[in-house]
Amino acid sequence: MDCSHIQFCGDKSKVDFPQLQRLFAKTAFWARERNIDELQIAIANSNPVVTVWDKQRLIGFARATSDGIYRAGIWDVIIDPDYQGVGLGRKLVQTVLSHPLVSKVERVYLTTTHQQSFYERIGFQQNETTTMVLYNNSESSEDLARRIKEIPVAIDNW
Known about the structure:
The protein is an alpha+beta fold and 158 residues long. The protein has one domain (7-125): Gcn5-related N-acetyltransferase (GNAT) (Aminopeptidase). Helix content is 32%, strand content 20%. The protein has six helices and five strands. The protein has a five-stranded mixed sheet with strand order 1-2-3-4-5, with helices on both faces. It is globular. The mean pLDDT is 86.
């Protein structure tokens, strides 16, 4: 496949949300139900956001969140199946990794279900010691707030 005309864009204001929603539905079993309103919120709170285009067609997407110094996380890496296997996914991840908010942090985290070998080829390592998840939807916010209030806190005089 000739990919010389494929464009990578780091301007999140250029995201075409209906196309992105369709790309998630087609490509990502874990994101098929995402709606445009929620995607807009996620992207507004992410930096960098990178899209991949074949002319006017959105064929790839990835985003990151970062504190700029210690930690960053890469999220939602997708390439349209019609374009997989030609290096676009690797270039997409490398583009995110080269962004100043990601390239200067101590650690970059990424969660994947089935693509460990792909990310290992880019330089990621499996890490089974630091991953924990809080499922906010598993209990009401009131229940969570009550549990947090029950945690004893000791504050020494400064």
